[in-house]
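Next up, a specimen:

>
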Amino acid sequence: MEKNPLSPAFNQGLRQIVYEKLREAIVNGAIRPGSKLSEIELAEQMAVSRTPVREAIRQLAQTGLVTLTPRRGAFVTLPSMKDAADLYELRTELEILAVENMCAQPPKDELQKYRKIFEDMTDATPAETYVSEDRAFHLMIYQACTNHFLALMLNNISDLINLCRPFSVERSPITQFTWGHLAIIDAVLSGDRLKAREETRAHITTSKDSLLEFLKNHRAELSREYHYGE
């Protein structure tokens, strides 16, 4: 009897499912940067064999979300100061272009929705709530971009940005970030491209500075906590 021709597709599907679950856990912060990834534990948690877990970890290493350390294992990437600065420098320039692009045909209903969301937030708003809405807001900008290649580049670095997001709000009041969103939204809705550029740069610079301050003060602590790269 011939082998079932759908078997490879099933196996590939399982590998993709494991990859997506592990990726989402990392991006959402369920598995924090610096954490060591155990194939055995992850396989048990997801009720699969170690093979798709191993392949998923290798795939995540190619995206930069996971760092493979010889003789030590796999760790969720804990960005260095330079890597974080370089990433946010690139993010700034790409998102400025995306926001400018969005000014031509702004998704008004979406922008008004997020304006209400961020306007209602206070410094008492849980950081997790802000981070979730911040992630969704910037994803909306990427999706509204009509420049296919620009959107592709932003999506390629979005996971690394999301990895850093929780740390970028650790040192500053929530309203410092929500004001930035409101300023971007108002500029786009008014069609003021120059203002939209300025507010986007200012907003991401605030996030970058907060992230670098956190890493400066806590990276060594996180490395010790998770034995990162040891």
About this structure: The CA atoms of residues 102 and 144 lie 6 Å apart. The first helix runs from residue 7 to 27. The chain is about 75% helix and 5% strand.
